[in-house]
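Quarterly update from the structural biology core.
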Amino acid sequence: MTVTQVGDGKYLVDREGRNEIIYVAGPATDRWIFWNGRIFRSRQRGDADGDRIAGPDKVRPTSVRAAAQSLTAPMPSRVSKILVQTGSAVKKGATLIVLEAMKMELPVRALADATVVTVHCREGELVQADAVLIDLT
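Predicted structure, tokenized:
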């Protein structure tokens, strides 16, 4: 595997002849990684909230940290599009909301088949990191 930085926070990963772009944001102690429509978070040991991860080689989806079926904002961003409403049935991998941050569109996808219980934001709204956007059951 070969990783080449191609821009500020933008990396080209060549793995077995397949090229993919990965975006990385945040300080070294709290990295956000955007890959293939999924969002991962990496923290260094000793974070105040008790959520400990050993480093950037041990990343996991951010939704694990949130409530059982809550989707949260990965970073401060603007809600660009909301594609679901309360009561909507969604399939795993479906884009539920699109955020805009650092001149990038960030799709937030369902991690499993579910039903939308509550939408906590509206289009055009600015949201902070870790703000709950959508609750699912």
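The CA atoms of residues 57 and 78 lie 29 Å apart.
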